[in-house]
Amino acid sequence: MAPPADLIERVGDLVEQVSASVIETRFAAVTGADVREKSPGELVTDADEEGERLLTAGLAGLWPGVPVVGEEACAADPALLDALHEEWAWLVDPVDGTGNFVAGSSEWAVMVALHHRNETVMSWIWQPVHRRMYVAERGAGATVNGASLACVPRTGDDSMLRGAVLRRFLDARTLARVDANAARFADVTSGRLCAGTEYPAIVEGAQDFALFWRTLPWDHAPPVLLLEEAGGTARRPDGSTYHPGDARVGLLVAANEDVWSSAVRLLD
Question: Which of 34, 101, 148, 211 has the fewest beta carbons under 10 Å from its own?
Answer without folding.
Answer: 148
